[in-house]
């Protein structure tokens, strides 16, 4: 058998999520076993996919149906940060689809705290999979965790025991929804790597006492990052440290598209965002020794030319779309004049309106905030439906 450790990492940006996945041998089966790890990251509620037939959970399900002995995982940031079909329903639609697709475990990312604590708890109760965050602890406690998060889960696939450990990004207390964090009375604490490492290393050692390999699933940067005097370990450093500690890393999976390389004995791969890529890692276990087949492991492009749509998942997503449509048509404000720009060099009236609205809202909970900064590129002055994102880069 064989234990996996899922991790997303410590990116301080607001859109970072984090999880840590460790695969280690718990019970060695004789002969040879095989299974496939399929993974998504930073879905951000894109159930239906993007323009030009890219992405969508119905297509991912169609791809998944081509495999047997599948372990389906997600590294976080999968509910919020995207379309209304998930965001306006507080993720109920996304968790429902994940349940039907057979996800086994997800890790918390900071975007998953974009609603209230009550909403987070409802999604945890709704889920058939396990929500993970080994380093999410309450302030002023030794190591007490909220009831709605688990440090790890042991899964079984192809006669192999897989231990999945989750770690959230330390940016969560900064970027998470204020009401969510205050609702914990002490808030959730995710310490920086250099402070967190002794605890996580101990927990990893306890999980992987009999491990022969470790796999990391992460959204942390590949290289170390120092912000305001605090250094956060990147994926490469994490792999190096575990290998040096005689905890050999079989596989490390990141979030950015287009990476597939070796670092010492470790294979490092990466998947993309918004559900337009699906990571596929083929693992064989012979006499207790796991091996990744680099010939058949790769990052799959999810679009209308590579796969169809699973009808059951497509219909279910369609039902949720009909439920959310009236919410998207509801008028929430009116203006006396146009909010479109007259010339290219004018200030964005739409951007100013959004910034003023954000400042008004955040002052209700943080009175000392005096400024909101927006990237004007994020705010189009034409209907969203008429603008399309550029196509994703090709896979390796």
Walk me through the structure.
The protein is an alpha/beta fold. Helices cover 25% and strands 22% of the residues. It contains 10 helices and 19 strands. It has helices at residues 57-64, 84-87, 92-101, 117-126, 172-175, 178-182, 193-207, 235-244, 311-329, 349-363; strands at residues 4-7, 20-23, 32-40, 70-74, 105-107, 130-132, 137-138, 152-157, 160-165, 188-189, 214-217, 225-227, 230-232, 249-254, 260-263, 266-270, 277-286, 289-292, 298-301. Strands 3, 4, 5, 6, 17, 18 and 19 form a 7-stranded mixed β-sheet that branches. A 4-stranded mixed β-sheet has the order 11-14-16-15, with helices on one face. α3 runs antiparallel to α9. The chain is globular, with a radius of gyration of 21 Å. The two termini are 30 Å apart. 44% of the residues are buried.
Structural class: alpha/beta
Helix content: 25-40%
Shape: globular
Radius of gyration: 21 Å
Low-confidence stretches: 1-20, 24-30, 181-205, 207-212, 381-393
Order of helices and strands: EEEHEHHEHEEEEHHEHEEEHEEEEEEHH
Task: Kindly report the average pLDDT value.
Answer: 74
- Report the major sheet: 7 strands, mixed
Distance between the termini: 30 Å
| Count of discrete alpha- or pi-helical segments spanning 4 or more residues | 10
Could you tell me the number of beta strands? 19
Portion of residues in beta strands equals 15-25%
């Amino acid at each position: 058998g064989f234990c996996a450790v899922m991790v997303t990492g410590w990116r301080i940006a607001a859109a970072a999520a984090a999880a840590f996945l460790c695969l280690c041998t718990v019970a060695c089966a004789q002969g040879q076993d095989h299974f496939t790890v399929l993974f998504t990251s930073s879905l951000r509620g894109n159930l239906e996919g993007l323009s030009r037939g890219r992405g969508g959970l119905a297509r991912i399900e169609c791809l998944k149906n081509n495999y047997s002995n599948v372990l389906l995982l997600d590294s976080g940031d999968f509910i919020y940060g995207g379309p209304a079909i998930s965001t306006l329903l507080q993720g109920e639609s996304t968790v429902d689809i994940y349940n039907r697709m057979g996800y086994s475990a997800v890790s918390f990312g900071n975007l998953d705290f974009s609603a209230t604590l009550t909403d987070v708890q409802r999604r945890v109760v709704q889920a058939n999979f396990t929500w993970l965050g080994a380093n999410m602890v309450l302030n002023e406690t030794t190591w007490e965790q909220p009831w709605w998060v688990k440090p790890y889960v042991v899964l079984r696939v192809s006669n192999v025991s897989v231990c999945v450990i989750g770690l959230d990004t330390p940016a969560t207390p900064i970027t998470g929804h204020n009401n969510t964090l205050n609702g914990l009375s002490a808030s959730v604490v995710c310490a920086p790597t250099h402070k967190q490492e002794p605890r996580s290393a101990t927990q990893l050692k306890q999980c992987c006492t009999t491990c022969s390999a470790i796999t990391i699933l992460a959204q942390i940067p590949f290289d170390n990052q120092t912000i305001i005097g605090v250094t956060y370990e990147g994926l490469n450093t994490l792999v190096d440290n575990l290998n040096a500690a005689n905890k050999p890393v079989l596989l490390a999976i990141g979030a950015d598209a287009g990476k597939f390389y070796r670092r010492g004995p470790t294979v490092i791969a990466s998947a993309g965002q918004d559900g337009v890529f699906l990571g596929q890692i083929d693992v064989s276990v012979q006499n207790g020794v796991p091996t990744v087949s680099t010939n058949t492991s790769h990052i799959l492009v999810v679009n209308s030319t590579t796969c169809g749509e699973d009808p059951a998942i497509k219909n279910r997503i369609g039902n949720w779309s009909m439920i959310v449509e009236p919410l998207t048509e509801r008028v929430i404000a009116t203006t006396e004049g146009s909010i479109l720009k007259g010339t290219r060099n004018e200030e964005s009236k739409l951007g100013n309106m959004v910034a003023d609205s954000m400042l008004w809202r955040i002052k209700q909970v943080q009175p000392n905030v005096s400024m909101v900064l927006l990237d004007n590129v994020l705010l189009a002055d034409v209907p969203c439906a008429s603008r399309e994102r550029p196509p994703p880069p090709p896979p390796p």
